[in-house]
């Protein structure tokens, strides 16, 4: 298979961790007989420096012409970076929002897995960590509060801010179908998270999800209010398989889920549209404080590359080979500094990529 991959290395540690993911993809291509072509793209702070804007139309068009896009981390230190002296619409993260919208990336997949080799880093009680967990958070990515109309203006001598939360039946239905499709490949359970006791948008969400569920009789559906879900994630995360939810709730819950795994440096993500196209990136930030030191954890980006093989190219065997190589490296005691513990062997970014490649045979 010939795979055309757009590459956005991004800011901070982004170039370092993306280089290791590309190294692993090259190893997969060598072992399994595929060919890869990369197109280097600029977005975020790097694009501001080069082009004056966080996302150019040329970058967006080049991304559209790719089969998939692999991305590092975007942004910098909000206190010291000149990027954050700009108005919000011109800052690095604005480029990411525009890229998601321009590519119609409505489905965000964020797996949260507790590797047994890393359960000591899990902040939950030992008996909860011993049970382990493996969930997929499905977040609607292009609707809701983040894309609604907003305003701040004076009314009767007082400033009033408004943010509009809007969802259409169509937007809810397409993310729900994607969530149920993924549940069919997992443990066949969907937990739909909303705030239907308060919000009209959540009541519509619940109604449409129940309609979609009728087409998936093998999948168990449960509804859960978002505040309860936040509590259950720390009380009993093993109960979850696929969590299906709207944009803001998904943003918050996926960050919570990432932290109970012990390290955000381990967590991949994918953002998909209605075709096979996807944008694949680590869940963590750009960590400008450690950029260039060769100590960043590349595993989340490498696992994002595995998700790319699975969801954009239907290469399940190759994706599994990467996942198994990551597990093998952890079992052999190799750790980057963020997941280091007593008795383990600390290694840097490049060596972690090299060792994962060595297990792919």
UniProtKB/TrEMBL annotation:
<keyword id="KW-0479">Metal-binding</keyword>
<feature type="binding site">
    <location>
        <position position="227"/>
    </location>
    <ligand>
        <name>substrate</name>
    </ligand>
</feature>
<dbReference type="Pfam" id="PF00180">
    <property type="entry name" value="Iso_dh"/>
</dbReference>
<protein>
    <recommendedName>
        <fullName>3-isopropylmalate dehydrogenase</fullName>
        <ecNumber>1.1.1.85</ecNumber>
    </recommendedName>
</protein>
<keyword id="KW-0520">NAD</keyword>
<comment type="subunit">
    <text>Homodimer.</text>
</comment>
<feature type="binding site">
    <location>
        <position position="227"/>
    </location>
    <ligand>
        <name>Mg(2+)</name>
    </ligand>
</feature>
<feature type="domain" description="Isopropylmalate dehydrogenase-like">
    <location>
        <begin position="4"/>
        <end position="356"/>
    </location>
</feature>
<feature type="binding site">
    <location>
        <position position="251"/>
    </location>
    <ligand>
        <name>Mg(2+)</name>
    </ligand>
</feature>
<comment type="similarity">
    <text>Belongs to the isocitrate and isopropylmalate dehydrogenases family. LeuB type 1 subfamily.</text>
</comment>
<keyword id="KW-0464">Manganese</keyword>
<feature type="binding site">
    <location>
        <begin position="285"/>
        <end position="297"/>
    </location>
    <ligand>
        <name>NAD(+)</name>
    </ligand>
</feature>
<comment type="function">
    <text>Catalyzes the oxidation of 3-carboxy-2-hydroxy-4-methylpentanoate (3-isopropylmalate) to 3-carboxy-4-methyl-2-oxopentanoate. The product decarboxylates to 4-methyl-2 oxopentanoate.</text>
</comment>
<feature type="site" description="Important for catalysis">
    <location>
        <position position="195"/>
    </location>
</feature>
<dbReference type="GO" id="GO:0003862">
    <property type="term" value="F:3-isopropylmalate dehydrogenase activity"/>
</dbReference>
<keyword id="KW-0460">Magnesium</keyword>
<dbReference type="GO" id="GO:0005829">
    <property type="term" value="C:cytosol"/>
</dbReference>
<dbReference type="GO" id="GO:0051287">
    <property type="term" value="F:NAD binding"/>
</dbReference>
<dbReference type="GO" id="GO:0009098">
    <property type="term" value="P:L-leucine biosynthetic process"/>
</dbReference>
<keyword id="KW-0963">Cytoplasm</keyword>
<comment type="pathway">
    <text>Amino-acid biosynthesis; L-leucine biosynthesis; L-leucine from 3-methyl-2-oxobutanoate: step 3/4.</text>
</comment>
<keyword id="KW-0560">Oxidoreductase</keyword>
<dbReference type="InterPro" id="IPR004429">
    <property type="entry name" value="Isopropylmalate_DH"/>
</dbReference>
<feature type="binding site">
    <location>
        <position position="255"/>
    </location>
    <ligand>
        <name>Mg(2+)</name>
    </ligand>
</feature>
<keyword id="KW-0028">Amino-acid biosynthesis</keyword>
<keyword id="KW-0432">Leucine biosynthesis</keyword>
<feature type="binding site">
    <location>
        <position position="139"/>
    </location>
    <ligand>
        <name>substrate</name>
    </ligand>
</feature>
<feature type="binding site">
    <location>
        <position position="110"/>
    </location>
    <ligand>
        <name>substrate</name>
    </ligand>
</feature>
<dbReference type="InterPro" id="IPR024084">
    <property type="entry name" value="IsoPropMal-DH-like_dom"/>
</dbReference>
<dbReference type="GO" id="GO:0000287">
    <property type="term" value="F:magnesium ion binding"/>
</dbReference>
<keyword id="KW-0100">Branched-chain amino acid biosynthesis</keyword>
<dbReference type="InterPro" id="IPR019818">
    <property type="entry name" value="IsoCit/isopropylmalate_DH_CS"/>
</dbReference>
<feature type="binding site">
    <location>
        <position position="100"/>
    </location>
    <ligand>
        <name>substrate</name>
    </ligand>
</feature>
<feature type="site" description="Important for catalysis">
    <location>
        <position position="146"/>
    </location>
</feature>
